[in-house]
Amino acid sequence: MGGNRMLKGRGKVIPGFYITDFNLSIDPSTYSDMIVESLSIDGWNVGRRTFNHFLNDKTLYEDEECVLVLEGVILNKTELFDQYGVTTIEKLVEAMYSKKGERFFADFRGSFSGALYDKNISQWVIWTNHYGDNALFYFQSHGHIAIGSNFIDLANSFKSFGALHVDEHAVASMQSTGFMSDDSTYALEIKRLLPGHYIRIADMRVEIEQYWRVRHDVYDFTNSSEDEIIELIDQYFRRAVRREFEKDREYGYRHLAELSGGLDSRMVSWVAHELGYTDVLDITFSQANYLDELIAKQIATALHNQCMAMPLDDAGFLFDLDKITCLNFGLTLAFGTTGAFRFFDALDISKYGIIHTGAVGDAVLGSFLSNPDEQHQLREAGRYTRLMDDDPASHCDLSRFADQEDYLMSTRAFLGAATSHLVTRGFSDIGSPFLDIDFFDLCMSIPLEYRCWHKIYKAWILKKYPKAADFIWEKYGMRIDAPDALIRIHQFARAVKNAGPAGVFFRVCTLLGIKTKRSKRSVITTGMNPLDAWLDQRPEIVKYWNSYFASNLDSLPLSEERKDSLCEEYRTGAATEKILALTVLAGIKLVKS
């Protein structure tokens, strides 16, 4: 894995590991800020390429009994050290494996992945974390097996055995939802290990097992009052925040937290401050002087945190299609992270620890559902566009899910929102207290009557952190204690003001799958990232996108029907629909290049 070039690895490659029964073909570059090492055991090649960051949580280790590789951060490591009476991660795994068996890693918390080879029984156990943002990919073909963190490495290596074929179901899924709804990648032969799952390999047989799933019965709130539920929410959330920020302190890193005008990131920084974590840099990126920037600055000032804001008005990130795809492999909407890539690329991230976010908080302590009755009406939801509704390949197999929230969490939250963490993981490890599995399980057990419409979420803030409610909630442009009826009226009025009647009409038509031409009057000009407005204002972006689309479409190994579908989506859709099509093209380039 050597080479003469010394490159900055951050922002260019996903850290992680690989396990193969052949010599893996990987980028020969030596990255100056990465540790690159490997070993061989019983015909298997094991290697890692990881940042020089949080190294006591990671390892590539071998002794007489096992081979162990760990990537990411284990946020409850010190708790487990105390529980098992050990002081190193290797001894911890040895003790946990001895006591718990092959699913021992289910007790880890955070964004992690890893593998354990038991020499006594010649068996691998290879896992991703509960919500799967420390992603792994695998294939078994032509008598060979490969598992790894980097899809590109596996795709390049597979070509030594045969041709890769594009999975048109994956293409259709991206076209409609902006993510993969199952274990698909753009390569039919390469699959993603789903969140909460692990691989067992013995005698060259690959078996996929599930160790965790979304459940609503981990805790029983049948006889609990709202006040009692709020107390538990606060207790578990504070522990989740403490786990993340203590990990920074363990290594002497500064705290870095994303902040916007929403509730989720606000509560991360706010509770961290209450717990005594004061050396915090809050970062925000949005359209200049939009509510997200203004509210974030107000909150950071109130907490005496440093704050850095990056206006997105230059829309330069819309040129970063291939750079972003090298990190997220085209598995989520290319620009779903807006300016995060450029922000972290401009920052000396090595001084900071976990990138703290409020990811998925809206859906965890709140809910994707607006009414409890929706829970048992299992149906597809959360599409970016209705233009694909008549395409059978775009639909998800709902039989995998127990209920509507299981479906939405397993797909939209984990395979969508959390998968966007891959871009951030190209710079540092990432966390969200809302995805702490103890907190997550607690929230999923809270009756939907409390969670829908953010009822318990708002009640928790107002009771425990009332000063955090002094700032406007960007989502509705009002404080959280405003009456629901007033919030809905204000939200509609704001939408009409921003886009005008033509804009409302255009979006409704798009959602219904009705084709209509977008007029300039329908463009939303105000928001965190008003993409359509930027396209109107920046013809060079349109020129670049059009050139990218035209130069890549004809060479795609797709059916003519699928190409026609992509053309229709790109040419008639708004900015988001265009990005869906561009994401597909960029993702397929990884397969065929």
UniProtKB/TrEMBL annotation:
SUPFAM superfamilies attached here?
Adenine nucleotide alpha hydrolases-like, N-terminal nucleophile aminohydrolases (Ntn hydrolases)
Cited InterPro entries: ASN_synthetase/amidase (IPR051786), GATase_2_dom (IPR017932), Ntn_hydrolases_N (IPR029055), Rossmann-like_a/b/a_fold (IPR014729)
- Pfam families, per database record: GATase_7
Q: Which UniProt keywords apply?
A: Amino-acid biosynthesis, Asparagine biosynthesis
Domain Glutamine amidotransferase type-2, first and last residues per copy: 62-151
Keyword Chaperone part of the UniProt annotation: no
What reaction does this catalyse?
Answer: L-aspartate + L-glutamine + ATP + H2O = L-asparagine + L-glutamate + AMP + diphosphate + H(+)
Q: Which GO terms describe its biological process?
A: asparagine biosynthetic process
Q: What is its EC number?
A: 6.3.5.4
List cellular component terms (GO). cytosol
Protein name, UniProt field: asparagine synthase (glutamine-hydrolyzing)
Q: Per the UniProt entry, what species is this protein from, by scientific name?
A: Candidatus Olsenella excrementavium
| Organism placement in taxonomy | Bacteria, Bacillati, Actinomycetota, Coriobacteriia, Coriobacteriales
